[in-house]
Amino acid sequence: MRQDLRQRLLSTNQGRIISRWEKLSPHEQSLVEQQLEAIDLEFLANLFDKRNSSFTLPDVEKIAPVPVLQPATNFAEAKREGLSSLAKGEVGILMVAGGQGSRLGTTQPKGTWPITPITQKSLFQLHSEKVLTLSKKANRDIPFMIMTSPATHDQTVAFFNSQAFFGLKKEQVIFFTQGTMPAVDLNTGEILFEEPAKVFASPDGHGGTLTALKKTGLLEQLKSQGIRHLFFFQVDNPLVQIADPVFIGHHISHRSQLSSKVILKDSPTDKLGNFIQVDGRCQIIEYSDLPMELATRKKHDGSLFIDTGNPAIHLFDVDFLDLVCSNAAALPFHLARKKVPHLDANLSKVVPEKENAWKFERFIFDIFPNAERWLLVSTKRDEEFAPLKNAQGDDSPETAKYAQSKLFIQWLEKAGVKIPAYSTTPEIEICPSFAMDAEELSRKLPSNFQAKFPLLLQD
Questions:
Q1: Which helix (H) or strand (E) is 43 found in, with range?
Q2: 257: which of 9, 72, 444, 455 lies 20 to 30 Å off by Cα?
Q3: pLDDT by residue (tens digit) across 126-169?
């Protein structure tokens, strides 16, 4: 082992790695050295030293509800503005897709999961078809960036290749990988290994999107291409209205540096991030950090004092992202206690029964207080938020498919279609290529259209 690396390990309380390293083959030793060289050991030690620093809630007296714009405000004008920006090539689309479907019972990327009610299209296909349809409407190839993780990158790229990029041009789709952070022992801070020559590393969270954009040069590339606005969403939400022109139009007309869609919370303890306002700046507090006294506080009209939740649908000004990326403090790491299987000093497998490690993540919403100009736009949960998280129960494939069918029934009813009586929600699927919203559906359907279930509408 190189002497300088050995000294860095000793000075950062990672000396036991040296004795572990001596038990490895020359090839394994080389692999471990390469991984350790890529880790900022001093920075990692500093994070561990601050492990007991808890989240600090802003002064409760300064916390205020956030103003929320209704999308119907200047609807036609906002839509024209948004469509114009798309047509001029000012909008890019970014999908966060680094997660594996472990909670769904698969080791494949979550985006490969079949999610539509009838044709069983994957999340990747559904979102790609939305981007393709938008590109055709804008008469230009809208850049579609997909952030993967080291664990999902190769499988994701292979999946898109095997499906001919779902009709998108290959050069239109840009894959990039988020960073990782090693997991460390809960008590000692020692780096954990999942294999003799492999550090246990996990993705650095959705906040890692920004550091990855900067590190890969994609942020500069976007600016050079004239991209001014970046639409951000997560792969596991099949209802998301990708690059919604009305949302884009409001963002532009308000000269907003960051804009977010918000949904009303179902209850004080709804498991969503909470939007708040402190000294005129927007912040998000995780539901687990929101004190019950504040979560249950009511306004004079009886509604919740903190009533807006985060469905993770954002629109960023690219210049703002560039500015934020130059400020290291804007994206701090958060520590989370986790169960991490690993090898002990004798290279024997350890499967912990309780939390034994720290993992480190960055959150995209930590940059929000940096925005001087921000905008929150209301959307409805049943129209734009049905996340896929679990194999069964809430936020499962069953609930996500039900949400899609229920939404499409609303579209049909708005289009004047008489819906036959039903005891259980029928299977309905409207492909993006056929219609992206109720208004477009109304224009496409003949006046005498009769719905029969199951119903599939596609070009």
A1: helix 41-49
A2: 72
A3: 999 999 999 999 999 999 999 999 999 999 999 999 999 999 99
Which residue in the block uniquely carries the two structure tokens 């050079």? 224
Instruction: Indicate the DSSP class of residue 188.
Output: T
DSSP string covering 330-380, please? Answer: GS--EEEEE---EE-TTS-EE--SS--EEEEE--GGGGGGG-SSEEEEE--
Nearest to 346 by CA among 12, 22, 5, 9: 22
**156 and 166 Cβ atoms separated by less than 8 Å:** no
- Does residue 31 register a pLDDT over 70? yes
Helix (H), strand (E), coil (C) string for 438-456: HHHHHHHCCCCCCCCCCEE
CB–CB of 66/308 below 8 Å? yes
Domains and their CATH numbers in the chain: 1-38 (no CATH), 55-395 (3.90.550.10), 396-459 (no CATH)
The H or E element that residue 281 is part of is strand 281-285
Query: What angle (nearest 5°) sits at the alpha carbon of residue 133, between those of residues 152 and 387?
Result: 45
Q: Could you tell me the CA-to-CA distances from 260 to 87, 244, 316 in Å, in that order? A: 22, 12, 9
What is the pTM (predicted TM-score) of this model? 0.93
